Amino acid sequence: MKSSKRLVAAFAVGLAACQSLPEPSPADKAKVVAETDWNRATSVKIDLRDAGFSPPQLNLVAGRPYRLTITNVGANNHYLNAPEFFGSIATRRAEVPRHAEVYMSRIDRVEVFAAGGSVDLWFVPLAKGRFRAHCHLGNHAEMGVEGLIVVE
Q1: Among 56, 58, 117, 53, which Cα is nearest to 89's?
Q2: Residue 126 near residue 88 (C-beta atoms within 8 A)
Q3: What's the confidence (pLDDT) of residue 104?
Q4: In whole angstroms, what is the distance from residue 107 CA to residue 74 CA?
Q5: What is the mean pLDDT of residues 63-69?
Q6: 126 or 77, greater pLDDT
Q7: CA-to-CA distance for 99 and 78, rounded, in angstroms?
Q8: Residue-range domains of the chain with CATH
Q9: pTM for the predicted model, two decimal places
Q10: Of 32, 39, 100, 146, which sits with the fewest C-beta atoms within 10 Å of its C-beta?
Q11: In this structure, are residues 59 and 150 in contact, taking their beta carbons and an 8 Å threshold?
């Protein structure tokens, strides 16, 4: 686990110095995922509503493992679209509880179907920063279906 913490720290320092750094390599992300103690993952939650995200700001810590539960509590389908954030995390898996698990190295965006649909994302943030999250369907973002992910 120590070497993965060093990788996270080195990436975060580099990102602060140069905002145009490319995302970590798949090999670096895989190393972080393999060395992480997933039993220590912190559970956090975002509810997708027809009029916004709840909470409107999600606060995370770089290098810490998370299980993010995304639940759609609205009547419409909604996306959690945060490409810069998703590019900066080491992803373990996405899970639809009691139905499916998908192991992947990169998430692009997540659509959660209306009326109670949910998905769990297991990941480690690698870069500090402020990342916009929004639903890109129709005019949902303009209607307030957006938020901010802050990684300290």
Answers
A1: 58
A2: yes
A3: 82
A4: 23
A5: 97
A6: 126
A7: 20
A8: 2-151 (2.60.40.420)
A9: 0.80
A10: 39
A11: yes
